[in-house]
Amino acid sequence: MRRLPSSRTLAAALSAVALVAVAGCGDDADETTTGSSAAKTKHVRVSYVPATTVLPLHVAQKQGFFKQQGLDVSLKEASNISDIPATLGRQFDIALGTATDLIKAGGAGVDVAQIAGNTIDTKDNPFVQLLVRKDAKIKSVADLEGKRVGTPTLGGVIHAAVLYAAKRAGADVSKIRGVEAPSPTLPDQLKAGRIDAVEALEPFATTMKANGAVSLGDPFAALGQPLATNFWIANGNWARENRDVVGKYVAALEQAVAFIKANPKPSRKILQGYTKMPPKIAQIVPLPTWDFDIRTDDLTTWVGVLEELGQLKRYVDPQKLVLSDDAS
């Protein structure tokens, strides 16, 4: 595991200082000078997908933790997480990313790096579940051969994990048809018989099981647990030139997780606000396990998975895909 050493020390040092964010910062501004003390607030553009995984991001924004760290953060929702890497360094500074997107972008020569962790999949708190109809003859991932699997992203980590698990179980994955569609539409497609299985995130997994769907388990378990499922990425050059900003960003997220644990009800109200999920679901949906460490070993695992599935044209060194502790 790698971790920028500045995140916790910055959190402690900055907690004693009142940093005031300046309003009216333009979209193209990177820094704004405040008052006679010449304190600087860094403008950071962040892209995300509206899921439970980014609750700390929104809590940090709502509770003013970014401002406490001297950051003026603007948030922009993205419809597809796989489209984000190409926007870094231009439209956005920091974005939510996954291992498959990061590795494939790095393999294509894009200068992109993981700057912090976000969520991990664990045995006690799985990130996703593979769901089928109650009357389906699909009893395990091995039975997916010849079937249609609904997925939020064909090139994403979830679908790669499902294919990997199915291959390890003896299925011919070339005969598994992935059907990409927005997560909210997949339950209805399963019910209508247009697809045979669903890679279900929360809150959809909870609601689908309540409506009778059967879980075949967590596909990520085939890769090993705990396992990084998504994390924060940035243009590599921007990240190397803004290590202090990265440290402050992570410190604010850590503050947010502490707030979520101490204040579950208001935190879940924030969750309902940006996801638009029904209030009752927002109050009971399982929350992910957050871990902001950079788990380089997990990237190594993912490289092996993509190689086995034939999705990598050439080897990618995981060490070159993370923001290292070396500031040189």
Strands, helices and their partners?
Layout: H1 6-14, E1 31-34, E2 39-48, H2 55-62, H3 65-68, E3 71-77, E4 94-97, H4 99-107, E5 112-121, E6 129-132, E7 148-151, H5 157-168, E8 177-180, H6 186-192, E9 197-200, H7 204-210, E10 214-215, E11 227-235, H8 236-241, H9 243-262, H10 264-275, H11 279-282, E12 289-290, H12 296-308
Parallel strand pairs: 2-3, 2-4, 7-8, 7-9
Antiparallel strand pairs: 1-2, 4-11, 5-11, 5-12, 6-9, 6-10
Helix pairs in contact: 1-9, 2-9, 2-10, 9-10
Structure report:
The protein is of the alpha/beta class. It has two domains: 6-122 and 226-313, Periplasmic binding protein-like II (D-Maltodextrin-Binding Protein, domain 2, 3-Layer(aba) Sandwich); 129-222, D-Maltodextrin-Binding Protein, domain 2. Helix content is 34%, strand content 20%. It contains twelve helices and twelve strands. The protein has helices at 6-14, 55-62, 65-68, 99-107, 157-168, 186-192, 204-210, 236-241, 243-262, 264-275, 279-282, 296-308, and strands spanning 31-34, 39-48, 71-77, 94-97, 112-121, 129-132, 148-151, 177-180, 197-200, 214-215, 227-235, 289-290. Mean pLDDT is 87; it is low at 1-38.
Question: What tags apply to this protein structure?
Answer:
single chain; 328 residues; alpha/beta; D-Maltodextrin-Binding Protein, domain 2; 2 domains; 12 helices; globular; disordered N terminus
Overview in brief:
The protein has twelve helices and twelve strands. By secondary structure, the chain is of the alpha/beta class.
